[in-house]
Amino acid sequence: MLSPSLVGRVTVFVTDASQLIQSGCPPLNVNNATIVGGSAELEGQVTPRLQLRVNASMTNARDQAGTPVIRIPNAAASAAFHYALSPASTVTLIANYVGTRPDLDFSTFPATTVTLPVYTLVGLRYSVTTGLGTWQVGVDNLFDVAYEAVKGFPSPGRTVFVSLSRGF
Asked: Are the C-beta atoms of residues 142 and 124 closer than 8 Å to each other?
């Protein structure tokens, strides 16, 4: 614990996977893979109004031949900052970073290995609790970043939403 209201965590992991199914068309069985990595996280109350959660991870995922497993980035990070405007309303800024990762391009035959580029997404939320419930207005992919999480499948651009949630 860094302070009574701010906590840091470090995690190291090693996973030996057998009969790992790699998504694709068609899905592939890579038999065995080893995934080694670590992550660091910082979470808690920074000021009476500001709360944060930040994490970063590094991952090395390889099959039995030493080939990188597709769609697993070597680096990823995320951050969420929640600022209380009042006891009933909050503004939240969310950022997600995804590093380069291998994928397969099925527009060629046979499919060729490609490296998908880095992308960073930012979202913004405003939440307010009223007698009707909690309203949330938000924007995902605020800067309208063009990216592909999977080769050949463009992801949505900027998205605006409104939601109401009620407890029963």
From this structure: yes
Residues 94 and 83: their CA atoms lie apart, in Å, by: 12
The domains of the chain are located at 6-165
Chain mean position to CA 121:
9
On the 0-12 / 13-18 / 19+ scale of CB atoms within 10 A, 74 is middle
C-beta neighbour count of 124 within 10 angstroms: 14
**Per-residue pLDDT reduced to its tens digit, 31-42:** 788 999 999 999
Nearest alpha-carbon partner for 82 in 42, 41, 53, 56: 53
The tokens describing 121, both together, are: 């997404």
Peptide bond into 154 cis (omega under 30): no
Q: What is the pTM assigned to this prediction?
A: 0.87
Structure tokens at 151: 């080769």
51: closest CA among 43, 59, 41?
43
Indicate the DSSP class of residue 99. Answer: -
